[in-house]
Specification:
The protein has 439 residues and is α/β, with parallel strands linked by helices. The protein contains 20 helices and 10 strands.
Length: 439
């Protein structure tokens, strides 16, 4: 009997000790797929193995808009994750979600963690910073739009494979030659609203929306300006190329990317974060280059707009858990971690130190074009090119997809599509202003 009592006491003690030594779990919801999902899992594994106090658990929760919706629902029911990856167009919505998040600057300060917002590339840090100077979310997979092309397809079409088209007239001329050489998909596009309206606007230094594209002091009053003559000319040029089979629309979001890595489409404009997929899966010679521009536009090219996502800290958690979040962000901020992630994925090295580290390593010389994204982003920005931060923008992106698809299928003109986007989008912006005006 005494032996049994001793054994039971030992079990209870061991259980208590195990509970005391158990790592604090940090739930991280994300939207990374394929090779980028592997990267996210590796980052968590690397952090977990570097210490024993905390365990980051990454969970794929669907594409960006799905994970954001799921997290908001989970917050309302008291089951939100500690960390949520939110794409850049959800920033204004997250900023307006009072009480649902904790500013990353506060999380880091409360934990006494090392965190210097000034070490980040200005265009990145500025986008995720509140008017009072406090950083709201942690820059994670920041990207920008770049141009990819199939060098083998260019050679077959009699084009110079060593020099990418620099201007839109050159892109359209190359698409025509590729079509004539028998290529079924000379050009395609991913994230069409981001690449052909947002980045197109900042790259040409033209206004996308009023109030500095929503980033101004009264950004909640912003209205769309994307039915200008330049925007109309561009979308109608793409519509004409679609009619001639020189531009082939492959679907929304990142759907078109698979057609490039498969060798089906010869040119694509999409995220710099697509590089990891291309470098691993493309079975042909490829090139990375800056976005094309219209040479008759004064001030072009300027700089491209930020894309990708940041990590938001959800409210309602315990102090020790926030300390774990801070430790994880401290780990992600290390220059060697940032540099390795940039080189692996094509996402921006979000700190200047990690950019310099990558440059010094000879990575850019060994992998031509991998510095394009950084060079497009570190130029001096203007009020038209700092970025785009609009309320209800997730829904506006859907409107852009719906209206542009009507152009690619020949059912409406570029002008009709852009006029419709402005009209429908402004209604959503007005609704956002009514809900958040002056807050």
């Amino acid at each position: 009997m005494q032996y049994k009592r001793f054994a039971l006491t030992a079990v209870v003690a061991a259980t208590a000790m195990g509970a005391a030594n158990a790592a604090t779990e940090i739930q991280w919801w994300h939207s990374m797929t394929a090779v980028n999902n592997e990267w996210v899992n590796d980052l968590a594994k690397q952090f977990n193995e570097s210490q024993s106090e905390y365990k980051v658990v990454p969970t794929f929760k669907g594409v960006y808009d799905e994970s954001m919706t799921a997290a908001i629902a989970a917050f309302r029911s008291g089951n939100a994750p500690h960390i949520l990856q939110v794409f850049e167009v959800g920033t204004a919505t997250m900023m307006a979600s009072k009480g649902a998040t904790v500013p990353v600057g506060k999380v880091m300060a409360d934990a006494g963690a090392k965190f210097d917002p000034s070490s980040y590339i200005p265009a990145v840090a500025g986008y995720y910073t509140a008017p009072n100077g406090q950083m709201l979310s942690f820059p994670f997979n920041s990207s920008t739009t770049i141009f990819y092309y199939n060098k083998d397809a260019f050679k077959k079409a009699g084009l110079n494979a060593d020099v990418a088209p620099k201007t839109w007239p050159e892109v359209f001329a190359a698409a025509k030659k590729l079509k004539e050489s028998g290529h079924s998909c000379p050009m395609t596009l991913a994230w069409q609203g981001w690449t052909q309206l947002e980045s197109f606007s900042t790259w040409h230094n033209v206004e996308f929306a009023t109030h500095q594209n929503g980033l101004g002091k009264e950004g909640y009053k912003a209205r769309l300006k994307i039915n200008s003559p330049l925007h109309v000319k561009h979308i109608e040029n793409l519509g004409e190329a679609a009619k001639n089979g020189e531009f082939v629309y492959k679907g929304r979001a990142s759907t078109a990317q698979a057609s490039f890595t498969a060798g089906e489409c010869a040119m694509i404009q999409t995220s710099s974060g697509f590089y990891g997929d291309v470098s691993k899966n493309a079975k042909f010679a490829y090139g990375l280059a800056p976005l094309p521009y219209y040479p008759d536009v004064k001030g072009a090219p300027q700089n491209t707009v930020i894309g990708g996502a940041s990590l938001w800290v959800m409210a309602g958690k315990k102090a020790p858990e926030y300390k774990g979040v801070a430790k994880f962000f401290e780990f992600l901020s290390k220059p060697e971690i940032q540099a390795a992630s940039h080189q692996r994925t094509g996402y921006l090295p979000v700190t200047m130190e990690s950019f310099k580290m990558t440059e010094a390593s000879g990575f850019y010389q060994k992998n031509p074009g991998t510095d394009v994204a950084v060079n497009q982003m570190i130029r001096k920005v203007t009020d038209n090119s700092r970025g785009i931060r609009l309320g209800n923008y997730v829904q506006i992106r859907t409107i852009e997809d719906e209206e542009l698809e009507q152009v690619w299928s020949g059912k409406q003109s570029g002008k009709q599509a852009l006029d419709n986007i402005v009209k429908r989008g402004d209604e959503l912006l007005a609704r956002f202003e009514r809900a958040n005006g002056g807050k």
